[in-house]
Specification:
The structure is a single chain. With 325 residues, the protein is an alpha/beta fold. The protein has 10 helices and 13 strands. A 7-stranded parallel beta sheet has the order 3-2-1-4-5-6-11, sandwiched between helices. Strands 7-10 form a two-stranded parallel sheet. The longest helix has 22 residues. The radius of gyration is 19 Å and the shape is globular. It starts with a strand and ends with a helix.
């Protein structure tokens, strides 16, 4: 396979590129290396990836349609793994334009490139946040998702709808992946695990929203990558030959963990107690998430399986080594 991975310098992108390359595939990675969080961390990921044979990187923004089309024309990708996006629920409250550009215009450009060059499979990142105000749990891919409570969630739902339209019109085969609270080594500094770890080690209090009355279906990054790698050669199958199809999958552990239990787990891994600063609910947030992964299991025979205790310990080990603390 010759695979394009957008957002290759990002958290999930880094791990995905690494595994695909180690599996012997040719991987072309692109990323605009924006400063939403530490560019130094992104460059450190790329430094690790540069050691791998079969990987090439281009600094590129998916909003730049001519550059993206030229890249497709040069490489003839068999698979596209689209992970580039403006991430973060809370940041979307302050900087909506970044989400409109990257998540809407950028994704439309990826779809246009796929329309013209017809890769065998387009895999793109969606998010559990699309379930928004849904009260039924666990969240099923068959549930209606018309109540996003953040702009970020709305852009991810828009991606799913755009993909459906392009698949219907132009015969594309696409899989949209609703990721559930991904964590692990090389993670994003804006995520709770990263922020909590940094604060605890520096002796600062951690902010716990909704007074701790929250739960998340925490999913270890290796389980996300295993799902992507297994999905790559298995595009969805249309009912009629020549038709396109867009299929949605949840990728989550399928076992929600209470936020306070998560903090307990982190304290154990760090060997330190946290100073807990209880806060009210934040705008755009949800109380609980819980993935029904039956569709994923049926299609690829795999369900995320790393327990949160093991995953948090792996993150803490990486954090201590990377930051030498």
């Amino acid at each position: 396979m010759t695979v394009l991975v957008t957002g290759a310098a990002g958290f999930i992108g880094y791990h995905t590129v690494k595994q695909l390359t180690l599996d012997g595939h040719t991987v072309i990675g692109i990323d605009n290396l924006n400063d939403y969080y530490s560019v130094t961390l992104k460059q450190a990921r790329l430094k690790q990836l540069s050691k791998l044979q079969g990987f090439r990187f281009h600094t590129m923004d998916i909003v730049d349609k001519p550059a993206l089309m030229a890249l497709f024309d040069e490489h003839g990708f068999t698979e596209v793994v689209h992970l580039a996006a403006q991430a973060g629920v809370r940041y979307s409250l302050d900087n909506p334009d970044a989400y409109a550009q990257s998540n809407l215009v950028g994704f439309l450009n990826v779809l246009e490139a796929c329309r013209h060059y017809q890769p065998a499979h387009l895999i793109y990142a969606s998010s559990s946040s699309v379930y928004g105000a849904n009260s039924k749990q666990p969240y099923s891919v068959d549930d209606a998702v018309e109540q996003p409570v953040s702009l970020y969630a709305a852009t991810k739902r828009a991606n799913e709808l755009l993909a459906h339209s392009y698949c219907h019109l132009y015969g594309l085969k696409a899989s949209g992946l609703r990721f559930f609270t991904v964590y692990g080594p090389w993670g994003r500094p804006d995520m709770a695990l990263f922020k909590f770890t940094e604060a605890i080690l520096q002796g600062r209090p951690i902010d716990i929203y909704n007074h701790g009355q929250m739960a998340r279906d925490f999913t270890y990054v290796d389980d996300i990558v295993e799902s992507i790698v297994r999905l790559c050669p298995k595009p969805p199958v249309a009912e009629k030959e020549g038709e396109g199809v867009n299929r949605i999958f949840n990728i989550g552990r399928g076992s929600p963990v209470a936020l306070l239990d998560f903090v307990d787990c982190l304290e154990t891994a760090l060997g330190r107690k946290a100073q807990r600063n209880f806060m009210p609910m934040q705008a755009g947030d949800v109380i609980n998430t819980w993935a029904d992964v039956s569709a994923l299991v049926d299609w690829i025979g795999f369900a995320p399986q790393v327990e949160v205790e093991a995953g948090v310990a792996q993150f803490v080990s990486w954090y201590r080594q990377y930051y030498q603390v």
